[in-house]
Amino acid sequence: THEPVMIPSGSKESLGYPTQKSESFLKILVNSSTNSGDSILDIFGGSGSMLAVCNQLQRKCVTIELKDDACKLIKKRLNYSTLKYYELIVDKSTIIEKEFSKTNLEQYLK
Asked: pLDDT (tens digit, 9 = 90+) per residue, 58-71?
């Protein structure tokens, strides 16, 4: 059987984000291409599905998202106090408040 890539609107998993990917599809993708503890770069964070899946599968994830509405959705969706692996959301305000050098990012990804 094939897992759906996109979430149909009205689905229980849907957060209302137009390009939201299903967690079941992303789990297949992540499990088939990485190992526990590996790092993933998600340059289009969207609704945060990859962050959620990486946390569940014990992968480090750096997510970049510039759209304010998407950043708010990700922050609302994820309870940072329960995350086991630190995620970095880079939005316009974060870039101004805290700049990450290449060295800092490389240290995090180790």
From this structure: 888 888 888 888 88
